[in-house]
Amino acid sequence: MSKNNKYVVHEGNKPGIYYSWPEARAQVEGYSGNCHEKVQPSGEAYSKPYVVTGGRKDGVYSSWRDAHAQVSGYSGGHVEKAKSFGEAESKFQASQGSSNSAKKGYYC
Fold first, then answer.
1. Checking DSSP bridges between strand 59-61 and strand 106-107, what pairing results, if any?
2. Which of 54, 77, 82, 88 can pair with 60 through a Cys bridge, CB separation 3.0 to 4.6 Å?
């Protein structure tokens, strides 16, 4: 694990940027609806798509924060990270019980 990792707490006891997981964890543990993500040393989020199913608005999201907002406080919502947007779209289509490529679920 790199010493240069940063963690962004979007929703927690004290939102902000933290330079270690223990510092960030202290802000999110026990906080209902917390939202946090690990970011690159530059501060940019790792670019991985997230598939939301059973949430407010199912689809493929390009950020953890946007995906998390669809399931936070929503019973039955699920977020899954995918390796690529192609994989994410396939997972989303499978979750919808359709291979209809005209039905897209991208939200950025």
1. parallel
2. 88
- b/e map of 59-83 (b: 16 or more CB within 10 Å)? bbbbbbbbbbbbbbeeeebebeebe
Q: What is the DSSP string of 65-82?
A: HHHHHHHTT-TT-EEEE-
Q: Is the pLDDT of residue 95 over 80?
A: yes
Q: Is the pTM of this model over 0.85?
A: no
Task: For residues 73-87, give the mean pLDDT.
Answer: 83
Domain CATH code at residue 21: 3.40.970.10
At position 49, the amino acid (one-letter code) is P
Q: Is residue 1 part of a domain?
A: no
